[in-house]
Amino acid sequence: MKKKFDKKQILDLLLNNAMYIIIALLVIYVAIKRPKFLGLASIVNIISLTASKLPMALGIAGCIVLAGTDISAGKIVGLSACITASLLTTVYKIFPSMTAPLPIPVVLLIILCVGGFIGLVNGFCVAQFDLHPYIVTLSTQLIVYGLILMYMMLGTNNGMALSGMTDSYKKLVTGSLFKIGTVSIPMYVLYAACFVAIMWVVWNKTTFGKNMFAVGSNKVAAEVSGVNVKKTIMMVFTLAGMMYAITGFIDAARVGSANATTGLNYESDAISACVIGGVSFVGGTGKISGVIIGVLLLQVIFAGLNFLSVNANLIYIVKGLIILIACAIDMRKYLTKK
Amino acid sequence: MKKLLSVLLAVLMVFALVGCSNNNSSEGGEAAPASDAEDVAVFWYNHTDAYLSSVRSAMTDAFESAGVSYYHYDANTDQATQTDQIRTAIAKGVKVLVVNQVEASNDDVTKTILDAAAEANLPVVFFNRSVSESVVTSYANTAYVGTDYTQAGHMEGQMVGDYVLANYDTVDLNGDGVISYVMFKGQEGNLEADARTQYGVEDADAILTAAGKPALAFYDENNSDKYLLDLNGAWSAAAANDYMETILSQYNEANGNMIELVIANNDDMAQGAVASLKNHGYNDPSQGQVVVPVFGVDAMDFAVALINEGSMTGTVKQDAVGMADAVKTIAVNFMNGAGAFDGINSAYELEGTWRVNIPYSAYNG
């Protein structure tokens, strides 16, 4: 009897940490085949890729904790990238009357307001009309897409990709934080770390964070125990909108251009990352560390399969399988509870 | 009551927006009076496409200066949407249909469109996205304005070959006598992407081997595709950038296997690669940095700027104004009952009685 119990415990332990084990196995496999995968440059690359995708996932994670989702995220990233690229530039194509780029803090403020406002609209509709976030964000996704297309046709731009960003802006985002040997770590890794810290505090140490989890697990119970449910939902979506805006701000400099397709499908990767990291669609559960693991795993897959020279088509299949496995393991916890 | 009020407010907002955009017809490009059908209905496969956006503004100018009224439809990459839009426009009573078919080379779609047009006795001008000769020639009053889709790939390959041959020793960073390259492909199942991926390397190889040099070598000998693909099929700078960052972490000068040449299906992807190279201390000649040659296609403004500052090496220009001008000429001919190609610019290549090709040109500063 006792032995069987041990077996079950081990199995549970394995399953509950399955994502860590998968990452470890993948890393070991790739590293055996291609030792350079664990080289400094490669590790820095994976960290940088993860950092560039983190703010968005941190934002969307809040919406998922509310048992919702946000599919307007990618388009908000795109709009923010386009606005940033049009204002912090040396070629004034969207606004031909400009003579100098705007100060960076002003642009940051603008995109935070724009992203936050769209998030607020999302949150308002979800909270006020009790609509499912999928429907609300599907609508705002379309609206934002239309706005991006109109924005890109302004001035003399004619829908072209925006480029020619100012050096000070590029330096602020992609400049070197510090160097290990010859490999430099870009600044945006630092920013991502800051956002992780901020979001960790928000989620774990503030009333707002506790309310968010309460609303996510049981709206009615939260309402009864005195939580302002509507305000909480609106704040979560607004915060998420701001995080998307920041992702756009970083992406425009990182990639060096922005156009109407910037941000395309970004939300699907961010949502996958959250789900893989154990932020459950059931609502009310999730950890910041899980989000990081989720984003990291997706980037390890991207870089690892690339190092292994795997056919691109396989990447879709691997991603799909990973998400499916992650969700199945996640639901298992709830099934055993029942 | 409160809910009713908010619904009313929302409706009011929508009307206000619509009102704004009507006053502002030059920006959206819609110049049709609501009461009467416009002369020409133009069906675009996707308003986000950067090159097509430049064709769109050129076409807007062309129609406006010809005094022809027009309306732009966006199918948003969905053929069903486009087919519905076409039926709506026919019902509305337009005189000419100009179609940028979403599912390029799909004969059934082309036939559906042409059947619907023939019922109303309307002429159709297809452009940019290819349609089959056999289908187009079996209907009256139908023409296609395109480009020889393989030409951009051939030109890119030739430009790459010529450049590498002329600068062989500078390009060969590790001095092993072989040029290692990376190819960025925009999308699977797209004829232009296929042709650019194939000829971009094949034609360059032909030039190199004819001069007694070894062919280009893909940087990763285990990759049998010999290209890296944008997984979203969006030909995007971000995809090329992510790949390039990952590649440079493994293939660099310190390891003696640095990428020595970048060939991309379009300028967006080329630009994403340039941004990554710049992050790693390459491709800024003003700082005296080593320049890894990067080639694209489209001759976007930003690519021309990069080429002029020396950070990018070459691109292939697709003539947006020429394409818009040819479409306008044919549409106006159809409206006036003239021959389809009457008075068309002689620089364009006529192919049979059904097709006009707008030539590409190479740009390397």
List keywords for this structure.
heterodimer, A: 338 residues, mainly alpha, ABC transporter involved in vitamin B12 uptake, BtuC, two-stranded antiparallel sheet, 14 helices, 3% strand, B: 365 residues, alpha/beta, Rossmann fold, 2 domains, seven-stranded mixed sheet, five-stranded parallel sheet, 13 helices
Description:
The complex is a heterodimer of chains A (338) and B (365). Chain A is mainly α. Chain A has one domain: ABC transporter involved in vitamin B12 uptake, BtuC (Orthogonal Bundle). Chain A has helices at residues 2-16, 18-33, 40-65, 73-87, 104-129, 133-152, 167-174, 187-205, 207-217, 219-224, 229-255, 266-276, 288-307, 312-337, and strands at residues 176-180, 183-186. Chain A has a two-stranded antiparallel sheet. In chain A, strand 1 (176-180) and strand 2 (183-186) form a beta hairpin. The radius of gyration of chain A is 21 Å and the shape is globular. With 365 residues, chain B is an alpha/beta fold. Chain B has 2 domains: 12-147 and 319-363, Response regulator (Rossmann fold, 3-Layer(aba) Sandwich), CATH 3.40.50; 150-317, Rossmann fold (3-Layer(aba) Sandwich). In chain B, the strands form 3 sheets. Chain B has a 7-stranded mixed beta sheet, sandwiched between helices. The radius of gyration of chain B is 23 Å and the shape is elongated. The termini of chain B are far apart. In chain B, 50% of the residues are buried. Mean pLDDT of chain B is 88; it is low at 19-35. Chains A and B meet through helix 3, helix 6, helix 11, helix 13 and helix 14 of A and helix 3, strand 8, helix 10, helix 11 and helix 12 of B.
